[in-house]
Amino acid sequence: MPENQYHEPPGELSPETRTFARMITSLIEEAEAIGWYEQRLDVEQDEQARAIMANAQGEEFKHFAMDLEFLLRRSPRWRQIAAGVLFQDGDIVENGEAAEAESGDEEGGRELVGAGAEGSLGIGSLRGEER
């Protein structure tokens, strides 16, 4: 993985932050691929080629969604803000502003949840409780 994707020395970053950075890079790459297929589909005249490209673009949609879900599960504030914007009726900007205000985190959401988390820190398992 290229180290130029980091803005801080990689050796000083936690494993969770390095994974987060890799997944952000993957999300960006999937978004780029979606755009490339959109352009190809716009100009391609051959129906069979278009069908293949549309199928491939669908794979990129899936990969983008999986990358995004991974990231949202590890950033509760991002997930909260996204929930206030995604799949909501009304003005997108107003929804975003309201969701950000409701998140109430003045530090910018600097809480990455560990690698084993699914919205849980696993604390219940320390008490012998089932997650």
Describe this structure in words.
This protein has 131 residues and is mostly helical. Helices cover 63% and strands 0% of the residues. The protein contains five helices and no strands. The protein has helices at residues 15-43, 47-74, 76-85, 92-103, 123-126. Helix 1 packs antiparallel against helix 2 (47-74), helix 2 (47-74) packs across helix 3 and helix 3 (76-85) runs antiparallel to helix 4 (92-103). The longest helix has 29 residues, at 15-43. The radius of gyration is 19 Å and the shape is flat.
Short description:
The protein is mostly helical. Helices cover 63% and strands 0% of the residues. Helix 1 (15-43) runs antiparallel to helix 2, helix 2 (47-74) crosses helix 3 and helix 3 runs antiparallel to helix 4 (92-103).
